[in-house]
Design a protein that fits this description.
By secondary structure, this protein is α/β, with parallel strands linked by helices. The chain has 8 helices and 7 strands.
């Protein structure tokens, strides 16, 4: 089965042989977001993916990742949210090409997203459509981590916060809100603020602060 996998998947998988530093400043984080036709992991499709790399407390803006995918599934009702029209002028690529570019960008980094279970679920559904395995990366949710950064008396029971709430809390501009790269940028800045509040001693300590971290393998 493994011999039949796409070469780009094999390259992605091979990147994990490098190992991942436990020292936070040395860890490579990829903060990402997906804009989709809806919230059904089986029926809906990814319209665009935006991602940014963070290392040693710095967002590598010049290495920003953004792709727009062919819209074989289109829901006009969601255009008012993501703003992507069916005949968008942006260059659109196939889903498999989008996955290839994403995995080449991500490699073995720690993935970070706001409500990451949904974004990872959408990527994994796309991978499944092309007979590829699920994402292998460790994953972190800024909503959960933000909740953990608060005093216990101020935490929400479910740990659910909108990205708008985090943007307001950390005074982050929402100019490009509801674009994949724009939301990834807001999430990246919020993540850096959260790291400063949590001050984790190691990557393992940070992963354990995400109450869902042990379940990522099931996504």
């Amino acid at each position: 089965m493994k011999n039949n996998l796409a070469e780009f998947w094999k390259s992605y998988e091979a990147s994990f042989k490098k190992g991942l530093s436990k020292n936070i400043p040395e860890v490579s984080f990829v903060v990402f977001d997906t804009e989709t036709t809806g919230f059904d992991l089986k029926k809906d499709r990814i319209l665009s993916i935006g991602a940014l790399k963070i290392q040693n407390g710095t967002i590598k803006a010049k290495e920003a990742f953004e792709v727009f995918l062919d819209q074989l599934t289109f829901d006009a009702k969601t255009v008012q949210i993501h703003g992507i029209l069916k005949k968008e002028k942006s260059i659109q690529i196939t889903e498999i090409e989008g996955l290839k570019r994403l995995l080449g960008f991500v490699e073995n980094a720690v993935l970070v997203a706001h409500h990451v279970r949904f974004d990872v679920g959408m990527i994994n559904s796309a991978l499944r459509r092309h007979n590829l395995p699920k994402l292998l990366n460790p994953k972190l949710d800024t909503s959960v981590l933000y909740n953990k950064s608060l005093p216990k008396s101020k935490r929400k029971a479910q740990g659910h916060y909108s990205l708008d709430e985090l943007a307001e809390e950390f005074h982050i501009s929402k100019t490009d809100r509801h674009t994949a790269l724009g939301d990834a940028y807001i999430t990246a800045i919020a993540f850096l603020h959260i790291l400063e509040k949590l001050k984790p001693a190691s990557l393992n300590e940070l992963l354990k602060k995400d109450k869902f971290w042990e379940f990522w393998k099931y996504l």
